[in-house]
User: What shape does this take?
Amino acid sequence: MRRTAARLAGGLGALLLWASACPASMPFATLTNAMPEHFTSVWTLARTRAMPLAAADATPLVIATDDNEQLWIADQTQHEVCAYKHSGTRTQRVSVPARGVVTSISFGDDQRILFALQRGTPSFPLGDLRVHTGQRLVSKDYGLLYTRTYPNYWDGSRVSTMVANAQARREYCAASPPTTIIPRTACISRRGTVYVAVPLLSLIERYASNGRTYTAFTLAPVRPLVPCSLIVTRDEELVLADALRNRIIVMDSRARVKTVLACQDAQQLFIAPHYKTGWLMLDPAAAELSLFASEGRLLQTCSTRGMSCAAALMPARNTLWLFDTQHWTWQDYAPHQR
Assistant: This one.
């Protein structure tokens, strides 16, 4: 059985472009029940260009797309985040402190941009959140609205004590040592709310749009876990990857669990918000690219076997970007004409 466009049009809007060939509602327990279509039966390569930064300057690779369909990428060497048009021309540049590695770039509807940095040192293993206006105020930078250090209640305790506590909670693995840089663990909602997943403490912190009001979610129903990736969709859902038990946890804006999905290797996943609603997930271990609607409903899975892509973004209805880190290319795909 297949969902028809008529059934999906009311709730999924622009997602139909990819979802028109998807199977009927699928089990939430695992992604392996999906029968993936071959990638080229859904998407056609329209263009390949070199990445705008050298690989040595963009490692770890931290990218995002804004509402203007620009690619934003962190220059880890020059300590700045730059935006590029489809042509590869740089349009924006925002400086960030040199004391950390950029780990997240995220955009809010209220003209805000979030940059997260992680220091990754034993003396201060975590990092900083920086929220900018999203509007160019001077020739080079955006205005800084506020900056916060995370976790909010870091009290200078010995890191060895915190590591021992994590081990006692059974929440210590390759993704949780305090000196390990973990990309994509912070995000900003369309309303300006900032979320950050803290691997060492295995919780989510939420900062209100004013930058002051703070809440911590311990995620008790799904512990033990080790966060290794976090996004917020335009539907205000949180999608968290758990490196400890290799799964995806879908939650509402107050971190109440909706759905849990299995995956092969959560640390390799690249998860990104869809430009309209839902989210997409590139799973290199399973060689699959999947599109999800709200609450973790699987719409379409495409096989990426034989490809070497480590990241994927969907900036517009008719556009999919894949990023090949082996050949260091930025690939632009359009829907396959059936």
